[in-house]
# Entry
Amino acid sequence: MKLFLFDFDGVLADSLDVYEKTVRDCLKDIKQPLIHSREEFLELFDDNFYESLEKKGVNLEVFMKAAEDILAQVRIKDMKTFPDVEPVIKKLHDEHLLIVISSNDYQSIKEALDYFNYNDYFRDILGSDFMFSKKEKILHAAKKYNIALKDIYYVGDTTGDIKEGKQAGVKTVGITWGWHSKEKMAAAKPDYLFDNPQELLLLR
# Structure
């Protein structure tokens, strides 16, 4: 059995508009409106999202406190799925262990997975309320489920995902239907770079 770790936003959910608005609203609420364009927003994911915020002088405790109220106002129905992802997830689930590892919060992800009818496919959700570091979340999952690092794939859509997957020592899978461009993802040198969900089945 292999362990497939999936980022949520940009991989399983087409949620860029929703997530960007949430982050902008949080920063505005704490009087640090640092994001003035989509490009600036996406740059926060060049590395770990929360580390990027800290480098810009954001107090993460204050940011997360603001996020509690703002996330409660998020309309899950404004998110969409990506075409062809669901049958691939189902096939992988039939043979392997699937977990979500994300910078988003557990409750938002849980509600979205329920709304998409994806929830039965994932054994666990490790969100921002568990810990900020995706590297540490990956290592936690490996230890908890007793899966060797060589049998773990982290599927992400940003260069930050690829960097943290590499730091954890697992196989990294970049996808190009998400937030960062194909060129940017290729530059991060993931172990695999896929243009459509069906290609994930090559890893079985």
